[in-house]
Amino acid sequence: MNIAIAILNWNGKKLLEQFLPSVVTYSREAKVYVIDNASSDDSVTFVNANFPDVKVIQNTENGGYSKGYNDGLKQIEADIYCLLNSDVEVTENWLTPIIEAFNKFPDTAIIQPKLLDFKNRDYFEYAGAAGGFIDKYGYPYCRGRIFNSIEKDLGQYNDVAEIFWASGACFFIRSKVFQELKGLDEDFFAHMEEIDLCWRAKNMGYSIKYVSDSKVYHVGGATLSNSNPKKTYLNFRNSLFILTKNGKGILFGKILTRLILDGIAGVKFLLELKPEHTLAIVKAHLSFYFHFNHLVKQRRLVKKKINYYKKPSIVIDYFVNKKTNYKSL
Q1: Judging by beta carbons within 10 Å of its beta carbon (0-12, 13-18, 19+), is residue 321 exposed, middle or buried?
Q2: Tell me, what CATH number does 91's domain have?
Q3: Is 77 helix (H, G, I), strand (E, B) or coil?
Q4: Is 109 left (phi over 0), alpha (psi -120 to 50) or beta?
Q5: pLDDT tens digits, residue range 25-66?
Q6: How far is the C-alpha of 142 from the C-alpha of 167, rounded, in Å?
Q7: Does residue 131 share a domain with residue 62?
Q8: What is the Cα–Cα distance from 258 to 260, expressed in whole angstroms?
Q9: Residue 66 and residue 122 share a domain
Q10: The domain containing residue 67 runs over which residues?
Q11: Which among 225, 224, 251, 228 is positioned nearest to 240, based on CA atoms?
Q12: Using N-to-C axis directions, what is the helix angle for 251-271 and 229-246, rounded to 10°?
């Protein structure tokens, strides 16, 4: 099985200095690539000078996560792509369980390893933890992380499990499936594009798995921190995008409910003296309404929509019923 590890980089020399050595050291079963999104720092020079076995692919513009990977992966031939964030530390033998799972489960198109916090290593990491799910209204959550409540890793998710979405921080996908799905949706630019890709794969009948025997550590927030209003904007907007494109059932009630719930979130930000995040939610909805007709056209192309949610509302479970960990749901 031919694996290509593709690390997307934009002005990330410091991250490459810190994390690329672990990838090169522990990934002898794979070929490592750095896809550079038109960086203005000397990160490309650094990789070429210090890691001659790492192939650098230079994109002509910074098209964000989606376009960056779409453009770069066109130049890579492999059976399996691993889309790996530049702020991820991998561990010894991390690839072996992934390879075994792809061989054992031929209908599995996408796999995520256990994602732990680089700075707080006994805890799961926000971006994907032990695999993701989504509720009726398009709010994502994880085994090991619901909103900002993050669980300690006590072995409670030491398994191979079917999940709904895999984290883009460390995302394995069969190349033929990536190409069949026509890659990542470039309307997203950044955040939740991997959930959209997983949802489209699920709607086509593919399986997505979490494999705990493969373990990596993710810094998180290296590009946009949770305190950045742009991240709030992208998260709220893009969750509406994926729900409209891929969700089964009548849209009107879901979008109306989202308007109410997102409005409550906006008020909460105001009370926390974070008006810039309230404005980000307003802008997210305006952008969503602007793109609505385009999203509906994409929705019509989906031949089969699956029942995608286990929980009707993770918002109610978390904020009203005070269920702060996955196993309490």
Answers
A1: exposed
A2: 3.90.550.10
A3: coil
A4: alpha
A5: 999 999 999 999 999 999 999 999 999 999 999 999 998 899
A6: 10
A7: yes
A8: 5
A9: yes
A10: 3-218
A11: 251
A12: 170
